[in-house]
Amino acid sequence: KNEVEQSPQNLTAQEGEFITINCSYSVGISALHWLQQHPGGGIVSLFMLSSGKKKHGRLIATINIQEKHSSLHITASHPRDSAVYICAVRSEATSGTYKYIFGTGTRLKVLA
Amino acid sequence: GAVVSQHPSRVICKSGTSVKIECRSLDFQATTMFWYRQFPKKSLMLMATSNEGSKATYEQGVEKDKFLINHASLTLSTLTVTSAHPEDSSFYICSATDGRYYGYTFGSGTRLTVV
User: Fold this and answer.
1) Is the pLDDT assigned to residue B95 strictly greater than 50?
2) B42 contacts in A (CB within 8 Å)?
3) Taken in order A73, A79, B104, B48, is the CA torsion positive or negative?
4) Inter-residue contact A70 to A51 (CB < 8 Å)
5) Does residue A88 surpass a pLDDT of 60?
6) In sequence order, what are the residues at sequence separation of 6 or more whose Cβ sits closer than 8 angstroms to the Cβ of residue B79?
7) Mean pLDDT of chain A
8) C-alpha A41, offset from chain centre
9) Across residues B25-50, what is the average pLDDT?
10) pLDDT of A78 strictly over 90
11) With an 8 Å Cβ cutoff, are A48 and B102 in contact?
12) Is the pLDDT of residue A9 over 60?
């Protein structure tokens, strides 16, 4: 079992729909990131969370530390939101520094 | 702010040759840089963590002699794929942090094809 699990793996939605992507993790973390990867490979960091909720435009990210779960919501989805969304957790590495563990990503396609 | 430039974006090389990929922080001092590899339709895999001025820390299973990482300055880290083989073909991406915050910035990635 992966230390970071995302669901669903693939998601197709109609323009305007409310979208939720889930991330569950099994390790201790100090932060969780939501990333967006475009078809060309470029990656954008959307949110960094350690508790609570953050909102940026149509995107909302929440985290429940006790339940080891985070969600990314997209309101009023648009075809330009089509991308792979990746959950990444920051945990302590063996060298004493930190490292990131990545989920396998959720491939979102929003149809016009 | 917090821009990371990665070059080249695409490279094709012959088997047996070496390829160098550069990762530069343009407007901040990157005390720590990370190198990742991504196979098609797979998640990112952390290869190594490099702190400026010291040897990189490689993840289990990553060959140190094959993937040479240098982080000689606070704005530049390089990944050299030595004696490349077709199985090294992949998408390589770096990220960097100045260590003061938990956030980090990704480069745009390099698609390596070994023929």
Assistant:
1) yes
2) 104
3) positive
4) no
5) yes
6) B20, B21, B23, B35, B47, B67, B68, B69, B92, B94
7) 89
8) 16
9) 85
10) yes
11) yes
12) yes
Q: Which of B2, B19, B71 is nearest to B10 (CA)?
A: B19
B42 reaches A (C-beta below 8 A): yes
What's the gap between Cα A66 and its chain centre? 18
CA-based nearest residue to B96, from B10, B1, B9, B2: B2
Percent of chain B with pLDDT over 70: 93
How far apart are alpha carbons A27 and A7 in whole angstroms? 17
Q: Which of B38, B46, B109 sits opposite A100 (nearest CB)?
A: B46
Return the SS3 of B64. coil
Judge whether residue B101 has pLDDT over 70. Answer: no
Write the residue in B49, B108, B111 that is nearest to A99 by C-beta.
B49
Kindly determine whether residue A44 and residue B106, on different chains, have CB atoms separated by under 8 Å.
yes
Q: Do A41 and B104 make contact, defined as CB atoms within 8 angstroms? A: no
- The length of chain B, given as a count of residues: 115
Q: For residue B64, give how far its alpha carbon lies from the nearest alpha carbon of chain A (Å).
A: 16
Residue A43 is nearest to which of B32, B59, B106, comparing CB atoms? B106
Q: How far is B40 from chain A (nearest CA, A)?
A: 10
